[in-house]
TrEMBL record:
Its EC number is 1.5.5.2. One of its GO terms (biological process) is L-proline catabolic process to L-glutamate. It comes from Marmota monax. The keyword rRNA-binding does not apply. GO terms for molecular function: FAD binding; proline dehydrogenase activity. InterPro entries: FAD-linked_oxidoreductase-like (IPR029041), Proline_DH_dom (IPR002872), Proline_oxidase (IPR015659). This is Proline dehydrogenase. GO terms for cellular component: mitochondrion. Residues 150-359 form the Proline dehydrogenase domain. Belongs to the proline oxidase family. Its cofactor is FAD. It catalyses: L-proline + a quinone = (S)-1-pyrroline-5-carboxylate + a quinol + H(+); trans-4-hydroxy-L-proline + a quinone = (3R,5S)-1-pyrroline-3-hydroxy-5-carboxylate + a quinol + H(+).
Length: 361
């Protein structure tokens, strides 16, 4: 898999004039100019070649937008088990090139802030491994064997980690996956590119969060100037507000910078189908309004943490929802959080259905 099409959606670039009209309707013309210049990242099909990507980026910069690139990874192929580590190593190469591309994009002098890109853990570690780790870590009393500190040490030293719940082959795959994650985080830090790690399904999210926490131990310490590795929190899950509060506290206690991409959540139907099939409690909020209330509470929590801890705490408000964006900007104003500070906004500009929804409001 190559990086010819560095993109983060599957639709063409949203026309810039519509985007501008949308942002002005969403935020009001004066606010939109200031806010977009400061902190909105756009997500779109950037092009097939570096030149095309650069052309798109220049267009976006004229609007004060920054790109948020991601490697378009396919679903993990069934053959990945047979091809060993090759598929994941190929994805790692693509991600390293995506870091280069993110770093090498033309920069506009009036766009302050860090370069960010997205990272999908299941492109570097198998879903099977993440599932097995999740079933293990959600059991009570096994946390010390799989602590973020222990994984971080294994990442750094490259020494073989033995986890009792995994067989020899799975342990080897875990070690190789940790090494890939560490290589991409180190390279991103060296190139001054922050990594936003995607949240996926609840049957693997605890493992993804554990891996992010291990990366954070190594790369989000104050001496690194991060956060370089951010996690994603899905407000449609019932336990998200509590988890966010706990993780923020843990990061603060450990003296680590904390980076959060806050979303509503993209896998509602599948989550519900799985819980129905397994006869377990539905992990998602009962309705859209409950998800929105949860989003609003998480937003409030994060903005208050940002206002207390300043640059140690970063937030991306990743939503097209007019009310959420309005709440964020209003509270930023009230709390005195600067527009070019640790809070930014993310939109999937290529996802016409969501943008259309925002336009229609
Ligand atoms: C930059 C960016 C990065 C993203 N990264 C991720 C990611 O890593 N992981 C991920 O899961 N998603 C991700 N998403 C997608 C995101 O989770 C939402 O699906 C999408 O943004 C739509 O939500 P909204 O707030 O923009 O809009 P809205 O239209 O206001 O909200 C739609 C969302 O509300 C929720 N919802 C709808 N109906 C119901 C219902 N009946 N009951 C409960 N909840 C309901 C669902 O979460 C749905 O997606 C990302 C989005 C953006 C913009």
């Amino acid at each position: 898999m190559g990086l010819e099409a560095p993109r983060t959606g599957s639709e063409p670039l949203f026309p810039v004039t519509q985007l501008q009209a949308w942002s002005q309707r969403l935020l009001g013309s004066r606010l939109s100019g200031a806010l977009l210049r400061a902190s909105v990242y756009g997500q779109f099909v950037a092009g097939e070649t570096q030149e095309e990507v650069e052309g798109c980026v220049r267009q976006l910069q004229a609007l004060g937008l920054r790109p948020l690139l991601a490697v378009p990874t396919e679903e993990e192929p069934d053959s990945a088990a047979q091809t060993g580590e090759a598929w994941y190593e190929g994805n790692l190469d693509a991600m390293l090139r995506c870091v280069d591309l993110s770093r090498g994009l033309p920069e506009s002098p009036d766009l302050a802030g860090k370069t960010l890109m997205q990272l999908k853990v299941t492109a570097l570690a198998s879903t099977r491994l993440c599932k097995d780790l999740t079933s293990w870590i959600t059991k009570p009393g096994v946390s010390s064997e799989l602590s973020p500190e222990r994984l971080a040490e294994a990442m750094d030293s490259g020494q073989n980690l033995q986890v009792s719940c995994l067989n020899t082959e799975q342990n080897q795959h875990l070690q190789a996956s940790l090494s890939r994650l560490n290589r991409v985080a180190q390279y991103a830090r060296d190139q001054q590119v922050g990594l936003l790690v995607d949240a996926e399904y609840t049957f693997i999210n605890p493992a993804l969060s554990l891996l992010v926490a291990a990366l954070a131990v190594r790369w989000n310490s104050p001496r690194e100037g991060g956060p370089w590795v951010w996690n994603t929190y899905q407000a449609y899950l019932k336990d998200t507000h509590e988890r966010l509060r706990r993780d923020a506290e843990a990061a603060h206690r450990a003296g680590l910078a904390f980076g959060v991409k806050l979303v509503r959540g993209a896998y509602l139907e599948k989550e519900r189908k799985v819980s129905q099939l397994q006869g377990t409690e539905d992990p998602t909020q009962p309705d859209y309004e409950a998800t929105s209330r949860s989003y609003s509470r998480c937003l409030e929590l994060m903005l208050s943490l940002v206002s207390h801890h300043g640059p140690m705490c970063h937030l991306m408000v990743a939503s097209h929802n007019e009310e959420s964006v309005r709440q964020a900007t209003k509270r930023m104003w009230e709390l005195g959080i600067p527009l070019d500070g640790p809070v930014c906004f993310g939109q999937l500009l290529g996802m016409c259905d969501h943008v259309s929804l925002a336009l229609g409001m």
